[in-house]
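May I ask for a protein sequence together with how it folds?
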Amino acid sequence: MAPIATTLMSENSGNASVGALGRTTSGKKLKIREYPKFDSLEEERLYRKQHLAAAFRVFADRGFDEGVAGHISVRDPVLIDHFWLNPLSQHFSQISVSDLILVNEDGEVVIGDEPINAAAFAIHSEIHKARPDVHAACHAHSVYGKAFSVFGRELDMMTQDSLRFYKSHAVYTQFGGVVLDREEGKRIAKALGNGKAAILQNHGLLTVGQSVDEAAFWFISLDKTCHAQLLADAASAGSGHKKIMIDDEEAAFSYSQVGTPEKGWLAFQGYYDEQLAKCNGSFLK
């Protein structure tokens, strides 16, 4: 039987949606932060670019970089069939707002002075086209993600964190080398479906979200979840102990607490704050 979130019954919808308890002894209501509202689309464009630049720095800190492989995109709120990407030759740890490249749906650079990754365009353009609800996508060759990808299988629902991906991730089984064909981008988008993540067999991980914050956090969590499963599978094989899975009812309930866009966005804010503190906001330039 699934539990009931009785501790949140008196909370406002914003707090309740992310499991925040905001009662005080004085009676003042504390409200958790949430995706901001903007006075103009230009303001939102800057916000998205700032958080995109921060996401690259976060990925670099976690070792998700490997040469020129890996890319994160965010849809432009002004030109909604355009999106921002990283320049091909720049290390994640050095990317700032002013370095970001705006491309159109034909892969042409609209703003920026550097080429983009052709594979990034082939994948991200088709995802943004197929999923109007998706404003950001992340792909990188993280160690645990690519190690788990060789099995061509979905994750086991065996930890609370894995439930972020309950019935919300897929496996793309057609490895065809570096993705340079938009038709393969379309196949990846089709495999992703309405989910938030795809495991690209023999390749790596892909996550999406309504914000770059959300997509980036799902990627961090997905890589950690792959790591946990690799460890658990190895331990089970070596010891003979059977893994205990989480039932569907509990998994579905928990997903509503840990797998929503609001929770994904919120979970990234600590990483964003960390980057601000570490480099005194240098990525904002």
About this structure: Residues 57 and 189 are 26 Å apart (CA to CA). The chain has a mean pLDDT of 94.
